[in-house]
Amino acid sequence: AQSVTQPDIHITVSEGASLELRCNYSYGATPYLFWYVQSPGQGLQLLLKYFSGDTLVQGIKGFEAEFKRSQSSFNLRKPSVHWSDAAEYFCAVNNMKTSYDKVIFGPGTSLSVIP
Amino acid sequence: NAGVTQTPKFQVLKTGQSMTLQCAQDMNHNSMYWYRQDPGMGLRLIYYSASEGTTDKGEVPNGYNVSRLNKREFSLRLESAAPSQTSVYFCASSDLWGASKRNGYTFGSGTRLTVV
Fold first, then answer.
1. First-to-final CA distance of chain B
2. Digit-coded pLDDT (tens) for A25-50
3. Chain-chain contact of B101 with A96 (C-beta, under 8 angstroms)
4. Residue (of A97, A87, A72, A80) closest to A22 by Cα position
5. By CA distance, what is B46's nearest residue in A?
6. Is A100 in Cβ contact with B4 (below 8 Å)?
7. Contact (Cβ atoms closer than 8 angstroms) between residue A57 and residue A35
8. pLDDT per position as a tens digit, B52-108
9. Nearest C-alpha of chain A: how many angstroms from B113?
């Protein structure tokens, strides 16, 4: 069965430090991949997406993610974290082969930022 | 502002009561979804509607019913609420059936439901 794992439940970083959030997926083929961010009390907002082409994708708010087929990973990175980045981050995958666009979400990683 | 609107934002129910969560989108999207979010479990799909006039079960449909009233509106009904349905509920929408795979979803801000 398809699945998405985010190994880190909670991460704390200092403001200005770099960030990497891990995401691994289990799929039979290359899926569409997404990262969403959820601020407290809010819905999810799309940060970036990958479906083909360049394996390094840029998103909003200075985030980027790299697709590595050999590792079945799609890790999210940011070179310098801001206090406003404190939020919950969800990796998601979408099966390219089914006839409907069912998205599977990972369990999420909660990010805290220390001033 | 264009987007997905959910009502109510908060609700407390007694066990056995019924209620309907409302969702409306103004982006002319074809597909709409209901998810529930529970700590440590991410988002789980309850029901979805690929297009107006169709609905299908997702991962956790038991205890829920849905209605795709028109292209804009997709409601979720709890007929007899149970404490296990305490959760945050999110409605989402996406554009064309296939093309939306590339664009992801637009989410509402959620409904926080507590069943006591």
1. 35
2. 987 677 889 999 999 888 899 999 99
3. yes
4. A72
5. A102
6. no
7. no
8. 889 999 889 999 999 999 999 999 999 999 999 999 999 999 875 555 566 788 999
9. 13
